[in-house]
Design brief:
The chain is α/β, with parallel strands linked by helices. The protein folds into three domains: 3-39; 100-301, no CATH class; 310-499, Rossmann fold (3-Layer(aba) Sandwich). The chain is 36% helix and 14% strand. The strands form two sheets. Strands 1, 2, 3, 4, 5, 6, 7, 8 and 9 form a nine-stranded mixed β-sheet that branches. A six-stranded mixed β-sheet has the order 11-10-12-13-14-15, with helices on both faces. It starts with a helix and ends with a helix. The model is unreliable at 22-28, 30-92 and 324-339 (pLDDT under 50). One of its GO terms (cellular component) is endoplasmic reticulum.
């Protein structure tokens, strides 16, 4: 080899040695970084599939997450044989459970993304401690009156779980129910009454539901589920609850214990996009329920926008009566309407029932009302509701301005009486007795409420304490002084006349 070639070979060898010396640390650093990234990837997988806290699951992947965000566990090979995450078409995801806009008070709760499996509700959360106590939401489905400890809910009824537990307990690919559902988690005892169904369950639910501030009208529920009530046992004796539900939403379904057991037999998770849970015993754990002795009591302290009930009132009357029927009095046109026709005073007679007026007082009240009609103040209607069809009852109520009656189921009809500056409910009690049932309905439907004890009357602001045990409260000799009732009507109608 020539000297010149030896020289170039030496230069190449020296350069290669220097290059390797400088490059090795760099490649070592890159390799270390790669392995660290691989280790980090393992750290992400294991918090989801292994044992860890909720914070370990979320933080490495997504950072801060608000309730309602969808958490997607990473798919791929895993050492957990009970979780089949390897199929490319299977995506395990559980949107976290939330109570939208804080729509909750004892016994009435709205959930978004609530899960049901084998008869147990599951609320999934990054922090389960943020939910209300379980006993404020529901109870064991037993009749009131059993020892209070037996009514307390257990994990059999409702569980609060984190995301790791959701993957373990709820499986994957739940069956979705995307429209609005209300689950009445109660026995049949109080459901078989017009007042308890509409004046407590539906009205209380709607008051809490109305806390949700979303664009557009809130949809009426597509279904009511009654897990522990058998088919037909929810129907009231007058058979009015069912027809009114169909009038409110012709496609509504009432699903009882049979359908609930179907879900259990599937052994699959049911995912409710939005669901309301109503429970009487949970409502009565609230101090306001105890104060008023009413399930709906806790909802009466909520700040609800004015007119929240009117869309339901309008929907039912329009669907039941049809567009060709006489339209109910519209609050926006109340003056024009009352000028065209005399206001209607409806006296709902209970003389064929157990709780009723003394016969002589009933006759005297009818005489006083008809005299008022003869004087031209109003038109008086004195129906016996059980002799009328459902449509006839609602048609009559929908064009009434003032309703009179003894404390009882018939006064629930005020929910369909248009609200106005003059709409009034006059409720007759045995002197000394008082219940808040129909006063609460009056406040919700925006009617002025008067209670009458024979010849004495008082408004909502003057209401006494609840007293169910007054002697004669449920008897057939309830007294009333007709002129006292007529004086209230004159006062209310005089206000109407002066405004027109």
């Amino acid at each position: 080899m020539s000297r010149k070639r030896q020289y170039f070979a030496f230069i190449f060898l020296a350069t290669s040695i220097l290059f390797i010396g400088f490059a090795f640390p760099y490649f070592a650093s890159v390799a270390s970084s790669v392995f660290k990234q691989h280790d980090a990837h393992v750290d992400i997988i294991e918090p989801i599939l292994g044992e860890t806290s909720p914070g370990d699951i979320i933080q490495p992947i997504l950072g801060e997450i608000s309730p309602g965000d969808i958490i997607h566990p990473i798919l791929g090979e895993t050492s957990r044989p009970d979780l089949d995450l390897t199929h490319p078409k299977i995506e395990v995801s559980f949107p976290t459970t939330s109570i939208p806009h804080g729509a909750h008070v004892n016994g009435f709760t709205i959930f978004d993304n609530l899960y049901l499996r084998n008869g147990t509700f599951f609320a999934v959360s990054l922090d389960p401690s943020t939910f209300p106590p379980k006993e404020a939401i529901l109870s064991a489905p037993l009749d009131l009156g059993v020892p209070s400890k037996e009514l307390l809910p257990t994990d059999k009824h409702l569980r609060y779980i984190d995301l790791e537990e959701a993957v373990q307990l709820l499986g994957h690919n739940p069956l979705h129910i995307d429209d609005m559902t209300v689950i009445i988690y109660d026995t049949k005892t109080f459901l078989r009454h017009y007042y308890h169904w509409w004046g407590e369950v539906i009205l209380g639910f709607w008051r809490v539901y109305s806390m949700i501030n979303e664009p557009g009208p809130l949809p009426f529920p597509s279904r009511f589920m009654l897990p522990v009530v058998e088919e037909g046992q929810w129907r009231d004796r007058a058979d009015i609850n069912g027809p009114l539900l169909r009038a409110m939403n012709p496609s509504v379904s009432i699903e009882t214990s049979g359908q609930w057991n179907d879900f259990i037999k599937l052994n699959r998770t049911i995912a409710f996009k939005r669901v309301g849970i109503v429970n009487r015993a949970a409502a009565h754990r609230h101090s306001e329920a105890g104060k008023y002795n009413k399930m709906i009591g806790p909802t009466m302290g909520l700040e609800i926008f004015s007119g929240y009930w009117k869309p339901l009132q309008t929907k039912l009357t329009q669907n039941l009566l049809g567009e060709s029927s006489e339209s109910p009095q519209d609050i926006t046109r109340e003056t024009a309407t009352t000028v065209k026709s005399k206001p209607v005073v409806i006296y709902i007679s209970r003389q064929k029932t157990g709780r009723r007026l003394a016969d002589k007082d009933h006759e005297a009240l009818v005489h006083s009302l008809l005299k008022l009609q003869d004087e031209g103040f109003c038109k008086v209607e004195i129906p016996v509701m059980e002799n009328l069809s459902v449509k006839e009852q609602i048609e009559l109520v929908s064009r009434s301005t003032i309703m009179v009656g003894v404390h009882g189921n018939g006064l629930t009809h005020q929910l369909w009486m248009p609200s106005s500056s003059w709409s009034t409910v006059i409720e007759i009690f045995f002197p000394g007795g008082y219940l808040f049932d129909y006063q609460f309905l009056s406040r919700s439907a925006e009617h002025q409420h008067y209670a009458v004890w024979n010849d004495t009357s008082f408004t909502t602001a003057e209401a006494p304490k609840s007293n169910l045990d007054a002697e004669g409260m449920h008897g057939s000799e309830i007294p009333v002084y007709g002129p006292t009732v007529v004086d209230i009507i004159r006062q209310r109608l005089a206000t109407l006349s002066s405004s027109t």
